[in-house]
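Example record used in the benchmark description.
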Amino acid sequence: MRRSIYGKIIDRVEAMNKLLIVLAFMGSAYAASSQLIEHHELSESLAEISGLELLNDSTLITFNDGGNKPQLYLMNLKGKITKTITVLDAKNKDWEDIAMDEEFIYIGDIGNNSNKRSALKIYKIKIEDVLKKKEVKAKEIKFSYGEQTKLPPSSDSLFFDAEGMTIYKDSIWVFTKDRSTSPNGYSRIYKIPTTPGSYTVYKSEQAYIGKNGWLTDGVTAVDVYEDRFYILTYNRYIIQEYKDGKFKTISTFEFNSISQRESIVVLNKSAIFVADEKNPLTGKMKLYKVKP
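Model output (structure tokens):
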């Protein structure tokens, strides 16, 4: 069900209240462990930026999250918008992350803050169309979680919100955010085929993030580079390897502040792009280029 404006405001107020408490004990700059190369303020058109991919060597692709228009934005590596694209016959209920393979981009309408959504959706669009057209058509990949038997589940079983998504080994991997009252520290991972259709999916893997709750340990975006997973939260990104059915943390890079960082993409071994939304406490939306 589409979130009402009132419901979205309540979500933001809840997040900001918790964020204010945390920020009172933290600095405002990036930690030395993740060297800032450069940063750029983004257009007001991207006030709720969520999701980031590298379309080619000079172009990033992104969008705004739930409740905004079903539009994609191309921008250069300095964060300047170069093109706006409308996805025809699509709705932005809660777009969260974007992934890409050699021929297609995938838009994850996978947000489920209240754990009340039973039908989630991924839009599949040709990269060629994105580069050539201002209006594009998408095919739909629909899915639901097999374990989600109540809408919403009880407060100790709120496992079905998701903001992170990537392509790995020819499948879409969705990383969930645990909103339960007593989180176990793991992000559940669901694998979804890239072929349009309707699917019921079940947890296939899990990755340990942390047990401090969704504000600091909730996965907000994911990217894969050279078989390593770059997992973003509001206050850090974690690099993990996946081997023999298990995730292992290789390194963690913390920021000295918390903001609504909901976008990550790896440029190369020496640079990563991270973007955050606009909010009243941490300021304008920005695109950061950092060195691990």
